[in-house]
Amino acid sequence: MQSPGLAPQRPSGRVRTLIITADDFGLHERVNEAVERAHRDGVLTAASLMVAAPAARDAVERARRLPHLRVGLHLALADSDAMLPPAQIPALVDANGRFGSNMVLDGVRFFFLPHVRRQLAREIRAQFEAFAATGLTLDHVNTHKHFHLHPTVLSLILEIGRDYGMRAMRLPCEADAPAWLRPWINLVRARLVRAGIDHNDYVVGMTNTGGMDEQVLLDTLARLPDGVGEIYCHPAAPADSGEGPITASMHAYRHADELAALLSPRVAAAIDAAGAVRGGFADVFARGAQAS
What we know:
Layout lengths: L15 E10 L3 H13 L4 E4 L6 H9 L5 E6 L27 H10 L1 H21 L3 E6 L7 H11 L6 E2 L12 H14 L2 E2 L2 E3 L9 H9 L4 E7 L21 H9 L1 H9 L2 E3 L2 H11 L1
Parallel strand pairs: 1-2, 1-8, 1-9, 2-3, 3-4, 5-6, 7-8
Cofactor: Mg(2+)
Keywords: Carbohydrate metabolism, Hydrolase, Magnesium, Metal-binding
InterPro entries: Glyco_hydro/deAcase_b/a-brl (IPR011330), Hopanoid_biosynth-assoc_HpnK (IPR017836), YdjC-like (IPR006879)
């Protein structure tokens, strides 16, 4: 992996730093295999762990063999398995312990219903606790489907995360984000600043979710802005013949193409040509503190 290099917390001049992250670490062994390969042989610097997902244990075992892979918590509060049993959070999950996919309805319930918020806080703490139990260093926190754009979810993460050493979060701020989303992004940014939580200046991966192939990465790197950027993706090893999608909501994702992009020599060369240094959140911001 390229040395993270020096990167002030809010770089000026021509400094460019990149955090290249794989989400959904632990969701499936194919995802875990891709993360390991993309880090060992490609440009991947970080991964976000779903602690309640079916292959989480395998992901942790792989992460322990990869001392330079920075691992964070991918808090999952929608369209995913919960950490706590249904009896402890009945207002959040179905009988199988799975969160629903109607984030608008759930967001309203999180905001207005105190008993739902209490259960939400319980589940968020349980996921932080499960990550702590892995013994891995917490590099960052983000959420499945960017649910921390919701003010209640963000408040609970900021409150609970302090107890577990959270120092960095993803700011889901992409250049061509729709206008209706920008006020929410600005609110998250302001709250992270007030809380003293490190965060990226911009993100790449929302518009092309599931399709972060080589050409998308090359186009991104050709017009890379200054500052701290996070490129996130969803790589997975190719499926066996006849195997279905990893999840129903990922039926159109091109996981193998994303893995190929992370392994691409052309992408690695483009990062070097852009003068970008790579690392995890801890690398980028720890070096920035030393430089300031």
